[in-house]
Amino acid sequence: MSFRGKRKDGEDYASNENEGLAPSKKAPKTSASIDSDDIIVCEISKNRRVSLRNWNGKIWVDICEFYVKDGKQLPGKKGISLSLDQWNVLRDHMDRIDEALAENS
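RESULT FIELD:
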């Protein structure tokens, strides 16, 4: 038998768990469109760009997609952030990536 819905005595499951507690307050989402710490390195296409940012004392290389909403450019869900170590590994393998592209194109 499913335990979803109301109890037999008519009370909701959630009502007993949160009794006497204030409703949880979520922090409002802040617009992360363009942070002052971000350095835009290049725009790959109209909605994709590579940027550098400092977060928690570390430098990250971001490759992200953006979209426009209400005249503001906002980050989309698609993208990747690489630490400097990860970026160096990728950069060191660029020749092999180019070779593989040439062979398979």
